[in-house]
């Protein structure tokens, strides 16, 4: 429940701190005193839009805090899912800066406005004067049936399944479109693939051919240099190997005199052997090196094919061409097996449709079962508030045998008649403002018994009523407050007298500034306020006595 509300720098409120009780709280005050301002400030911490033009002082930011006692309600999962610290006394805060930008907090942790709103909707239901219009909205009418049927969780799960089904439907259609486009491109893909496959391109083929062609192009230079180097090693008497041979002959003649000389001779023999091998390989390579014009032409032709394919596919290497070939093969395989995949998706959709149709049918059956109960109980409540002949008629039409939408398989209409002999008709066509208020009160008081909503606020639910009817409406609010916290803004003394706690909103002038103030009335202050509501600003003793009687009752 809402235990405390603080408001700083909002509209005509500079600084306000008010505590509420857990039962029926009534708020009264003259028209324009600022009762709606309190609701507006409360709306800020419930996620409503904020504008800096409503600041009391345009040089300061606006801060609204709501303190909620939530120990008796199951909110721990919400806090866990949103990574928030849970507190039995939870604080919702909204700060609006001078530039209009706002920040939201839950227990001092910054949150998005959507998270603040999601929690606020579970804490408070504000029934303002314009809220009677929602009684004609399909969403509200379905909510009434589902709350009374105690199947909100089942309906929420159904809607999740339905949303997934709709996503799968879109994915299925996208797959069909993709498949049709792919089939249109299939011949072209096949042509490209066959061309690449027929080219028999090998990994790194381009690089190897370019190296071979480069070698062929410089064959004469390579052959000449190989010959010269071989000649310097072994081609004439002054060649390196000849000189090494002479050196070894001289070392052999003296190596028996010194072990170090023998070691050097051994090392030189190793060099001689290695140089002989090099010379032989140089000679062999030189003999094999020749310019092969036919081979060069063959390589150029092959590279021309590769370069042409690379240009066509906008790549630079053989490896990239092979990757393109694999990609084309994958596309062709996807096209080949696309119909099979579509069949699987269609079968899955069919299964989901059957599940949704079954769930929608079960939801519809429970709605049908509670309709007579709702009609009967609402009629009884309407009789209590002075409308004994009023009736609520709920029409339920089921969609086609396998038809369903996000709400299930039903089309619901709430019809209303206020008088005998009057055929039920659409509510907004036949109900007056006062009748709408009492009908909405009857419905909300009915569904409130089935929900765990901590607080409900009625903003002038007494529009269009007076006298004994107002007394009865107040009695319903008092009964409702046994199950939840009720805050009622009213201008009728009969309703004000039903409150356990009474708050008075008024304006005060200090210098050139007007302020809105609110205070909790003590017993005698309350008698005086209700007497003023009965007879005017200066009540006589009879009005005071009447006020006392109302409070006693």
Automatic annotation (TrEMBL):
A GO biological-process term: SOS response
One protein family per Pfam: SMC_N
InterPro entries: DNA_recomb/repair_RecN, P-loop_NTPase, RecF/RecN/SMC_N
Keyword DNA damage appears in the UniProt entry: yes
Stretches assigned to the RecF/RecN/SMC N-terminal domain: 2-513
GO cellular component: bacterial nucleoid
GO molecular function list: ATP binding
Ribonucleoprotein keyword on record: no
Chain coiled-coil ranges: 148-288, 335-369
Keyword vocabulary terms for this entry: ATP-binding, Coiled coil, DNA damage, DNA repair, Nucleotide-binding
CDD domains listed in its UniProt record: ABC_RecN (cd03241)
Function: May be involved in recombinational repair of damaged DNA.
Similarity comment text for this entry: Belongs to the RecN family.
Name under which the protein is recorded: DNA repair protein RecN
Natural source organism: Pelobium manganitolerans
């Amino acid at each position: 429940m809402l235990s405390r509300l603080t408001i700083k720098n909002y509209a005509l409120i500079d600084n306000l701190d008010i505590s509420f009780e857990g039962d029926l709280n009534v708020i009264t005050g003259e028209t324009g005193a600022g009762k709606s301002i309190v609701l507006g400030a409360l709306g800020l911490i419930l996620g409503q839009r904020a504008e800096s033009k409503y600041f009391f002082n345009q040089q300061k930011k606006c801060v609204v805090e709501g303190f909620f006692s939530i120990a008796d309600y199951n909110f721990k999962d919400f806090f866990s899912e949103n990574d928030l610290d849970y507190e039995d006394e939870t604080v919702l805060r909204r700060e609006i800066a001078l530039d209009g930008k706002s920040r939201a907090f839950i227990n001092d942790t910054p949150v998005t406005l959507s998270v603040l709103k999601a929690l606020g909707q579970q804490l408070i239901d504000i029934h303002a004067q314009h809220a009677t219009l929602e009684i004609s909205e399909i969403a509200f009418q379905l909510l009434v049936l589902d709350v009374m049927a105690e199947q909100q969780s089942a309906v929420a799960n159904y809607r999740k399944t339905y949303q997934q089904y709709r996503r799968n439907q879109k994915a299925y259609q996208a797959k069909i479109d993709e498949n049709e486009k792919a089939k249109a491109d299939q011949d072209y893909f096949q042509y490209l693939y066959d061309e690449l496959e027929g080219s028999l391109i090998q990994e790194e083929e381009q690089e190897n051919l370019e190296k071979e062609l480069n070698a062929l192009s410089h064959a004469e230079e390579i052959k000449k240099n190989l010959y010269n180097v071989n000649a310097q090693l072994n081609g004439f008497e002054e060649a390196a190997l000849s000189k090494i041979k002479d050196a070894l002959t001289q070392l052999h003649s003296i190596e028996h005199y010194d072990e170090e000389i023998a070691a050097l001779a051994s090392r030189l023999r190793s060099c001689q052997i290695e140089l002989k091998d090099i010379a032989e390989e140089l000679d062999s390579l030189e003999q094999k090196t020749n310019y092969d014009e036919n081979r060069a032409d063959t390589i150029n032709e092959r590279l021309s094919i590769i370069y042409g394919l690379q240009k066509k596919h906008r790549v630079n290497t053989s490896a990239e061409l092979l990757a393109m070939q694999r990609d084309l093969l994958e596309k062709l395989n996807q096209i080949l097996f696309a119909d099979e995949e579509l069949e699987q998706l269609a079968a899955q959709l069919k299964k989901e449709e059957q599940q949704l149709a079954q769930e929608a049918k079960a939801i519809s059956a429970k709605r049908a079962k509670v309709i007579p109960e709702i009609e009967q109980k609402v009629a009884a409540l309407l009789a209590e508030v002075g409308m004994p002949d009023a009736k609520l008629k709920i029409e339920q039409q089921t969609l086609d045998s396998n038809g369903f939408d996000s709400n299930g398989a039903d089309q619901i209409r709430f019809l209303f008649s206020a008088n005998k002999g009057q055929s039920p008709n659409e509510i907004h066509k036949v109900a007056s403002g006062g009748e709408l208020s009492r009908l909405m009160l009857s419905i909300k008081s009915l569904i409130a018994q089935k929900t765990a909503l901590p607080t409900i606020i009625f903003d002038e639910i007494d529009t269009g009523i007076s006298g004994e009817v107002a007394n009865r409406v107040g009695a319903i609010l008092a009964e409702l407050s046994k199950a939840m916290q009720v805050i009622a803004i009213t201008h009728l003394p009969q309703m004000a007298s039903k409150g356990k706690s009474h708050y008075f909103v008024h304006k005060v002038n200090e210098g050139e500034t007007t302020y809105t103030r609110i205070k909790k009335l003590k017993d005698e202050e309350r008698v005086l306020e209700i007497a003023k509501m009965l007879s005017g600003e200066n009540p006589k003793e009879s009005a005071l006595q009447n006020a006392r009687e109302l409070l006693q009752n």
